[in-house]
Amino acid sequence: MTARQAVRPGGTIETLKGAVAAEWTKAWSVRSTWWGAVAGVVLMAAASAQTAIYIVDANTNTDPSDDRGVTAWGQVAAQAVELAQFAVIALAMLLVTAEYAAGSMRTTVQWVPQRGALLAAKAVVAAVVCGVTGAVMAVTGALAAWPLLGSWGAVSATGLIGDVLTIAVYLAVMGAATVGAAMALRSAVTTLTVVFLLMTVVPASLSATDLTAAERIAELLPHAAGGAFLRDDGDPYSPAAGAALLAAWAAVALAAGLSVLRRRDA
Amino acid sequence: MIELRGLTKRYGDVTAVDGLSLRVEPGTVTGFLGPNGAGKSTTMRMIVGLDVPTSGTALVAGRPYRSMRFPLRQVGALLDARAVHPGRSARAHLMAMARSNRIPVRRVTQVLELVGMGAAADRRAGALSLGMSQRLGIAGALLGDPGVLMFDEPVNGLDPDGVRWVRELMRSLAAEGRTVLVSSHLMSEMQLTADRLVVIGRGRLLADAPIDEVLAAGRRRVRVRTPRAAMLATALQAQGASVTAMSERELEVSGLPAERVGEAAFAAGVPLHELSPVEVSLEEAFMELTSGTAQFTAGGAGSLA
Questions:
Q1: Contact A10 B177 (CB under 8 A)
Q2: Is pLDDT above 60 for A9?
Q3: Fewer CB within 10 A of the terminal residue: chain A, N end or C end?
Q4: What global pTM score does this model have?
Q5: How far from B65 is each of A74, A116, B9, B46, B69, CA to CA, in Å?
Q6: Which of B61, B68, B140 sits opposite A113 (nearest CB)?
Q7: Nearest Cα to Cα of residue B274 among B220, B222, B221
Q8: What does the pLDDT look like over A139-166, one tens digit per residue?
Q9: DSSP state of A68
Q10: CA distance B127 to chain A (A)
Q11: In a 3-state reduction of DSSP, which class is residue B57?
């Protein structure tokens, strides 16, 4: 048995490779991942169609103040992702919370006892799955907007590619951040509630107060950061600043997840 | 080999495992016994790094589990057969497991055949019976061909054929030179499977000895029938035995072998109507060990009274 018990060589990269391969296999061997991806695409088509109809309505009604003018197909998708993202967030969340619900997190940490490598693997897999799904969603959203926008629509190859990549990156970051939050919170209900509040209710209520301080706080939340990154309108800050702020939120969520994973018994 | 050094786990005021030190040697099946709540599962969870010990260390093959790159190649553990995503097939579960530790994927088919799950491999884990889940758990433990194996209550939910199969599997794994630690509350099962017993109660080590010794320790009691019971009791107590009066004419003696009891009776001039060593099953030995607070360890002259 001595040969078998000898410690095999292999660095952290080897551990990470194995962990990513395992998480990838796990992600695609449950239905929730497929459902999440399909739901994301369907939701995106519906939300993009609705957004396109609104834009045409706003442009053709008697009130000139709400006119949006000619809008790029991809920008319609970038707006619609605000709703459609929740299917992808649920997909990423279930990669973690389903394991706590079934108790299989205990077997998972037996396979990969290095907590950092385990979290990294889950975040990478969530980012890739959500990012690729996001790219498909973005193309679907743009195509759904096209016939509805009619002459109010515009498309350029570089513009569309830019929007598709932006949406893919946005959802990849959201997927990784959700994995971190789910690792820290462990339960599906809590995770979904926290993410939903942070992405919709809290920024909306803060903005509705009309207090400058509350609005400033709302601008720092991931919802505003994501919006600034997705929509190329410089409101309330540049896409680069939005991307940086969103990445910072994801880093905080992952750090919280790692801290809980390291500290608490599985 | 598994080595525990002063392993302790406290949850608030409750001490689940209390200064456990022992070595589980290769080439033998070690039975891990204790009543419910004795700390067996907590100990096993600490060995594979699921729980962090409050103090002390647990080493497997000389290393803490959490420091291993590919632990499944060194340690196979079945702790909770139901801890599998209910929507994932048995095969996909093992595939992910193999990939995590860079174990060749063909091992998956091999272990599925080995545990007799070939036909159920593509069923969703949630649709498996408890017995089939146990087989899947055992397949997972064997996947990395590890030198150390741990099974928490592996025969739960298995039919008699399955129980016999697990028994033979444990024996053959140990015969191949592997370290095998099996927890159970079924004493009769341990009597047939284990070479050595580790008994814990309330988180503390009660016995760590070859199974024959644990049985022999229980067998040290002797029943005596005599019309002059009180006189014999005094004579035996003078020799350090502890004596329980079962009735007016019947004594149960522990701490002295039957020969010495007979000689003491002869010296005291007490007639004996019966002198017999009390045969105990492992079950009874276990009950005695866990009901008292006395410690019995290999080589020590511990008393069970």
A1: no
A2: no
A3: N
A4: 0.84
A5: 50, 15, 17, 9, 9
A6: B68
A7: B222
A8: 999 999 999 999 999 999 999 999 999 9
A9: -
A10: 14
A11: strand
